[in-house]
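Protein modeling request. Please complete all fields; requests missing the sequence field cannot be processed.
Requester role: graduate student
Desired output: 3D structure, token encoding
Chains: 1
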Amino acid sequence: MRKYNVAVIGAGVVGVEMLRVLKQRNFPVNQLKVFARSARNMEVDGEIYAVEPISADGFCGIDIALFAGTEGEKGAALTYAPEAVKRGAVVIDNGADFRMDPKVPLVVPEVNAADVKKHKGIIANPNCSTIQMVVALNPLHKKYHIKKVIVTTLQASSGAGKTAVEQLNNENAKIAQGGFNSVQVDGVARSMPQQLAYNCFPHIGSFVDGGYTNEEWKLVNETHKIMHAPKIKISATTVRIPVRTGHSESVYIETEKAIDPDEARKILAKSPGIVVMDDLKNNLYPMPKDAEGRDETFIGRIRQDAFNKKGLWLWVVADNLRKGAASNAVQIAECLISSLK
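Delivered output (341 residues):
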């Protein structure tokens, strides 16, 4: 079996998960490099990795470059992805810089793996909330032809990076000490716009056209591109919640013909990358704590809308650092090397 020289760009939470996933999935690595802004050593699961300062010439000899898009390296792909491609690497970028570029495939392997073959040196990894939603939607769209989607996301702190997790932990600690003032936060550095501990707020990304956030528009535009279905009407509200890792989504879909919940469960259960957890008698449904550390997308609370036979509700949960970022990127790399055989 051929082995590949791989670079991971970024030493934040997603970069760490990329290193972890490469090892756990036994990706055929020959030489592995880690790049960030500055040199240092980092430990992941007891293994020490030497982090090198990123440079264009550092990509010489690299076959696959995984850009994590975290810890200050967000946007690094704009500078260094073209340099990596010039030196023979294929870039898989977790950031937002190339996602909507018509010349760059945007890939979720369970949905549009064939698009990998269209790359011209760069493949984009979608937004975390988009990935788990399209994994759930695609099998149903093939059968029922989805016309409309309304989604509310409940997104974990780790989706905003390491400093957001630290903010949540510090706020929880302040509350436990009885010294937390929600009006004026004393001694707690903030990376998010609002208090998160014991709170939630509907503000992820920047507010743009129509009062939506750019995170909400990602769910619209990226879904259209990945599923090759630009006519699906999608409206989203994205909410940050006090959970460490694991995004949840309440998803409503309307289809061209009546949709049977039992048949939908069977379709989803047979689809790649999906675990159906839907046993109401035993209070079994997906939760972030159960998805953490897993690569699957978990789906439950599957039910027909009470007033529309063409409407179906889903509850969709996935680990945003793994399936929502690192694992999907590595899966893209797996598709890439399969396409080369």
